[in-house]
Amino acid sequence: MSSTPVSVTQNERISWLTVIKIAGVFVSWAIGSGFVTGQETLQYFCGYGIYGYAGIAIAMLLHAYLIVSFFKLGYEKRFSRPLEIFTYYCGEKIGKVFQVLALGLMFSAPVVMISGFGAALNQHFGISSSLGSIILGVLCLITIILGLRKLVDIIGTMGPFIIVLALGTGMYYLFNNIDGLKHGIEIAPTLKMSRIAPTWWLAGLYYTTCTPMHSAPFFAATATTVKVKKEAVYGGILGVILYGLGGTTMFSATFTNIEVLSQQMIPNLYIANSISTILGYAFILVIFLGIYSSCVPSMFALCVSFRKEKTHDYNVFATVLVTVSVLCSLLLPFDKLLGLVYGAYGVIGGVFVLFIIAKQYQEKKAKYN
After folding, report:
1. pLDDT at residue 30 in the model
2. For residue 9, what pLDDT is reported?
3. What's residue 7's pLDDT?
4. What pLDDT, on a 0 to 100 scale, did the predictor assign at position 49?
5. What CATH code is carried by the domain that includes residue 111?
6. Contact call for residues 301 and 218 (beta carbons, < 8 A)
7. 369 within a domain of the structure (yes/no)
């Protein structure tokens, strides 16, 4: 494993602007097609009624633990290739297996996201979903070619905008339909809708364990863009808090009209359109930004795993990757793709989390012996 550890002093000044930017990077990455469209809310939380809130709490606590771990490790080790984080946690042989599995998710996750944007355009404008997929694919390709630092700058500015508009929309809908909240919570477990897991607590775990397979390489690399380790750590924690607030708000809003929203491919777009036609158009933009800012990091991590950034081969590889992703996004409906991909990687990521915990336990044990 090739990495260059760094030593830092404890007296370095923290830039809170950088903390906010890192929080924005996390929020932008986390608010992908599932969250911003509302399909994650339905499949991971709403189907379990009141226990869905406990599922969100489990998910956010595990998110915070993992993100802080990846930021700290990435800052200290400075891996030459992002996928080296898997061999660090799991050893050379098992780590190689996880690298292959991670590459699979780095490809399949953007496919789901691209499909989600196509579905949103189809629901709102009635146009072919393939057009939305192509538009998103072209913009993803441009960003990937620009490189990591430009990527962090671009998506870091999107997070606050996305979360504010999502929070505002969810809160407005929730308070204007608050009378339906209790009823929705009660009947949700009886409705026919997709559920990612048989129990609420397992769904809460899956919500987070499907992410470390592609978040670990990206956030380990992102940590190298800050000057002080605490900037990344504090930014990660702030990002999880904002993400949790946004998720809980949209989750509660969905309950207020669960019978109708559970039948929508893009429930959050239905919510926005029911408030205002203008807001519906604005939410199309939010859906695009949320999907774009989650799609690009996975594709970037996959590209730099095979080709050196800012080279001709890298650009060619990125072009082929984006093209194939767009084509694959047209094979299955968005909701089916989301359940299939993230359900499978929820299990795989859960095993990886156990390796992370074991590695950290070994390090602490060695430190105090």
Report:
1. 78
2. 46
3. 46
4. 94
5. 1.20.1740.10
6. yes
7. no
Is residue 330 in a domain?
A: yes
Domain with 136 in it: 16-363
Q: How many residues does the chain have?
A: 369
How far is the C-alpha of 239 from the C-alpha of 339, rounded, in Å? 25
Beta partners for 239?
none
For 88, residues 6+ apart whose C-beta sits below 8 A from its C-beta are: 1, 3, 73, 77, 79, 95, 359
Q: What is the 3-state secondary structure (H, E, C) of the chain?
A: CCECCCCCCCCCCCCHHHHHHHHHHHHHHHCCHHHHHCHHHHHHHHHHCCHHHHHHHHHHHHHHHHHHHHHHHHHHHCECCCCHHHHHHHCHHHHHHHHHHHHHHHHHHHHHHHHHHHHHHHHHHCCCHHHHHHHHHHHHHHHHHHCHHHHHHHHHCHHHHHHHHHHHHHHHHHHHCHHHHHHHHHHHHHCCCCCCCCCHHHHHHHHHHCCHHHHHHHHHHHHHHCCCHHHHHHHHHHHHHHHHHHHHHHHHHHHCCHHHHCCCCCHHHHHHHHHCHHHHHHHHHHHHHHHHHHHHHHHHHHHHHHCCCCCHHHHHHHHHHHHHHHHHCCCCCHHHHHHHHHHHHHHHHHHHHHHHHHHHHHHHHHHHC
pLDDT given for residue 94 in this prediction: 94
Residue 2 lies in a domain: no
Name the domain count of the chain. Answer: 1
Q: 139 in a domain, yes or no?
A: yes
Which residue in 216, 242, 250 sits closest to 156, CA to CA? 242
pLDDT means per 10 residues, the chain with 369 residues, are 48 82 81 71 90 94 93 89 90 92 80 80 79 85 76 65 80 93 94 87 89 84 87 92 88 93 86 89 78 77 81 91 87 74 81 94 84
